[in-house]
Design a protein that fits this description.
By secondary structure, the protein is an alpha+beta fold. Helix content is 52%, strand content 16%. The chain is built from nine helices and eleven strands. A five-stranded mixed beta sheet has the order 6-8-9-11-10, with helices on one face. Strands 1-4-3-2 form a four-stranded antiparallel beta sheet, sandwiched between helices. It has a two-stranded antiparallel sheet with strand order 5-7. Strand 2 (121-126) and strand 3 form a beta hairpin. Helix 1 (4-48) runs antiparallel to helix 4 and helix 5 (218-268) runs antiparallel to helix 6 (274-302). It is rod-shaped, with a radius of gyration of 50 Å.
Length: 452
């Protein structure tokens, strides 16, 4: 593993060094190739134009020298003549004042040209430089002399060296500047991330953290914003959990204390009528059981995985709601409450029975608790969503903001878990629920439709 600074800077520095070096190498290869081609072209030109300048009737070395002097010449090509023993002749050189040929070069050139046919170009290396030679055909050759043209491939070494030096200097300057700039850029990226990391390491569930990177990077600002939102959710969850535990312990303690008090009274013989006392204990135990069942249901729903397709089914909303209403009709009739349904056909949703009962069952139960005489249920579709309205003609909701919070009980409520279960259940299905007043309480639920 490595730091983000090194992860960014290493490839950048590598490229900064590689690019000038590549340019330098490419330049030298190109110059070398160009020098070779030019040297060969010069030699071929000289050799091809030589015969027309020759006097075919010369009978002495001096006559041959005179003819060669009148042949085409070049500042980058020299002529070497050899006698019959292969020794360099002193008769002439084309570039006498500034010759690049010494005895060793002349000897190597002679050895090479012996292996070449007329007009063929050969090459050899000497002290790191390339030399190119071509055999000059001499007809007739009564003196058995031999003449060659020789060219040095890197005739402009000083020029190339100067260019290389300039390129190297420029490359070093550019590299230093580029490394400095890349270091500053890397720092501007890495420093805010290091700050965010250090803040995350010290984050606490009971504190709200406000990250501010002071960066002009859109991505880093978005990251800081998302971390702040996440921290707020953690804080709210911690606060909600703490409140939940306090309320749960209070709700559990009340029936337990009642049960224990009556049990101790029976044990000490305080109550003469133990039958009625036992009935009270049984009622408190039932309340406790309902509370525990509600908490367990809420826990299961919160851990429900919507991506687990094995636990999901396709429901016809009209059929499901009709069956559910039938289970409450007996209680509704006993309370003189009429439940009417106006449901659209062929509305399908994905869910499971526990979640749907957690939504609709708890909202209908809440309506039965507060309705005076009427509960109306409507199902309609808007776009790709099913809209379910459950209205009752009871009193208006007094605290709409907290109605879905855990243990938030209205007048005549039990434990304050029903509507919290409804909200958690519908959110697991990707839906929403809200409550408002309209001549009584109205609960509006939105659930995505499944298209068959």
């Amino acid at each position: 593993m490595t730091t983000i600074r090194k992860k960014i800077s290493r490839p950048v520095i590598f490229l900064i060094v590689l690019v000038p070096l590549s340019i330098l190498i490419l330049f030298n290869l190109t110059v070398s190739y160009y020098a070779q081609i030019e040297a060969e072209k010069e030699l071929i030109y000289m050799a091809e134009n030589l015969p027309q300048n020759f006097d075919s009737n010369f009978e002495s070395a001096k006559g041959m020298a005179f003819s060669l002097r009148n042949a085409p010449s070049s500042s980058s090509v020299e002529l070497i003549t050899y006698n019959r023993q292969g020794k360099v002749s002193k008769l002439l050189k084309l570039n006498e004042n500034n010759s690049f040929v010494n005895d060793e070069i002349a000897h190597q050139a002679y050895e090479l040209v012996l292996e070449l046919s007329e007009g063929e170009i050969g090459s050899f290396k000497y002290n790191g430089s390339d030399y190119y030679v071509i055999n000059i055909p001499i007809e007739p050759a009564p003196l058995r002399n031999k003449a060659i043209y020789i060219s040095k491939g890197y005739f402009f070494d000083d020029f190339v060296f100067t260019i290389n030096l300039v390129l190297l200097t420029i490359s070093v300057i550019i590299t230093v500047i580029a490394i400095f700039i890349s270091t500053m850029i890397t720092k501007s990226i890495a420093k805010p991330i290091e700050y965010i990391t250090s803040c995350i390491e010290t984050i606490k569930s009971d504190e709200i953290l406000k990250l501010n990177t002071n960066s002009d990077s859109i991505e880093l600002k978005k990251l800081s914003h998302e971390i702040n939102k996440m921290n707020k959710r953690i804080y709210d969850a911690h606060k909600s959990q703490k409140l939940f535990l306090n309320n749960a312990s209070h709700e559990l303690r009340t029936p337990l204390m009642s049960i224990r008090g009556y049990a101790d009274g029976i044990e000490m013989g305080i109550f003469a009528d133990t039958s009625s006392t036992a009935h009270i204990i049984s009622e408190e135990a039932q309340k406790l059981t309902k509370l525990i069942d509600g908490l367990l249901t809420l826990g299961r729903i919160e851990n429900f995985d919507f991506n687990d397709k094995t636990s999901l089914e396709i429901f016809n909303l009209k059929d499901y709601m009709s069956e559910l209403v039938n289970t409450y009709n007996g209680y509704a009739i006993a309370q003189n409450i009429d439940i009417s349904c106006k449901l659209e056909d062929e509305v399908y949703i994905i869910g499971n029975d526990e979640l749907l009962r957690g939504i609709f069952g708890n909202v209908i139960s809440n309506g039965l608790r507060y309705a005076k005489s009427q509960i109306d249920i409507y199902i309609k579709t808007i776009d790709n969503n099913a809209i379910i309205l459950i209205k009752n003609n009871g009193e208006d909701i007094t605290n709409q903001d907290k109605i879905f919070e855990r243990f938030s009980k209205g007048k005549g409520g039990n434990f304050g878990l029903g509507l919290s279960i409804a909200k958690t259940s519908i959110e697991k299905l990707g839906g929403q629920i809200r409550a408002y007043n309209e001549n009584g309480a109205v609960f509006e639920m939105l659930i995505p439709i499944h298209h068959r």
